[in-house]
Automatic annotation (TrEMBL):
GO terms for molecular function: transmembrane transporter activity. The chain crosses the membrane at residues 12-34, 54-75, 82-101, 107-129, 141-163, 169-189, 224-244, 264-286, 293-313, 319-340, 352-373, 379-400. Keywords: Cell membrane, Membrane, Transmembrane, Transmembrane helix, Transport. This is MFS transporter. It is a multi-pass membrane protein. Residues 16-405 form the Major facilitator superfamily (MFS) profile domain. Gene3D superfamilies: MFS general substrate transporter like domains (1.20.1250.20). The keyword Transmembrane helix applies. One of its GO terms (cellular component) is plasma membrane. It comes from Paenibacillus sp. SYP-B3998. It is found in: Cell membrane.
Amino acid sequence: MENQTWFKEPKHAWIGLGTLWVIGFVGALTRFIMAYFQVQIAEDLQISRGFISMAWSTNLLIAACCAPLGGWLVDRYGPKKVMLTSALMGIIGTGIVVLGHQPIVFFIGYGVISGLIGIGTTTTYMLMFDWFQHHRAKATALLASASSVGLAVSTPIFVSSSWLTWKDAFLASFILGIVIALPMIWLGIKSPQQQNKAESVQELPPMEEQEMSQSVGSSLKARALHLPIFFVVACALFTCGFNMGTVEMNLVAIHQLANVTPGMIALSMSVLGILEITGSLVFGYLLDRFNKLMLMTILYGIRIMGFTFLFLHVGWSPVLFAAAFGITYLSAIPGGLLIVNEYTKGKGKQTGFLLLFHQGGSILGALIGGASFDYFQNYQLLIGVDVFICTLVTLGYFLLLSARRRKIQLQPMKAST
């Protein structure tokens, strides 16, 4: 039974993926609370929205700083202990908010303690890379969809039930963390020692991965190639975070400032949500079959078109942007981390630092959006920066792709001499 495989992958890999997906689904409730109940929280606690934004930014900053630490902890103590600690931090943070309805208590519980969940962010990606060989990108894409599906499910429940408040949502998150998250991590996540990799049945990796493994040797020349790859992926993840900060904090305000009708805004948000999930599955399938550098070049090229539509504010700009950004929304992070993992055999610390770049971009995107509006009374500068940095990342991935293709073409010539 230990050697049983499903679709060429060990059985424990799929069980672990299901476990992480359910945990991500439950975790989406906290994301929903801050997106939907800001006005009610401000009124009940008699605080400004700026205070709520500060708590949100502090949460992101602490989570970002914890990502490299989490990578180091995973390498040292294993994923199971780190994930249990991360879940406990989330439960304690929401519990503090539930028990004390005061501004400072809210800030400490959500802004500080819940931010420590970030130590587990790196763990999920490292588990995907460790468990899966043939369906790695698909598995990562499925995991990324958990938050979007959770958001899609929790939104109509709370919107249609006017008697449910933000306090109920935090209480639900607290209870679900104890009843679902902790037991599932304890039972569904196996440590590397438990997996007994030496006896597991695994076929050879796809040809692309074999070529990458061969190309990355122990020579100094091969190691010298790691730096530009890491640099480009770090810039790409920073750009992705900046894009997400732009969208999550400012998109509705951008549409409203452009006099977009409420009906068009609702349609665009629906398109964005649907294509988030669809895009993650499509790119997940493609990343397992085709050159990842080529696909990341295409992905950021699509984002350039999307933000260009948003900048122009033409009639169908909201829907066109939603389609372009939605289909790429959940795939930029897995795609970049997969490239680093396969080219450089990256460990948890590398993944943690890359996620730090992403979180930093998200915080900066949100802050520049507010500053841009305060100074210029519009968001054109913010959108222009999105177009510019997406262009730079597209060029960076294209140059890496071209360099790899030249290297492959030169190998037969060297062998024949």
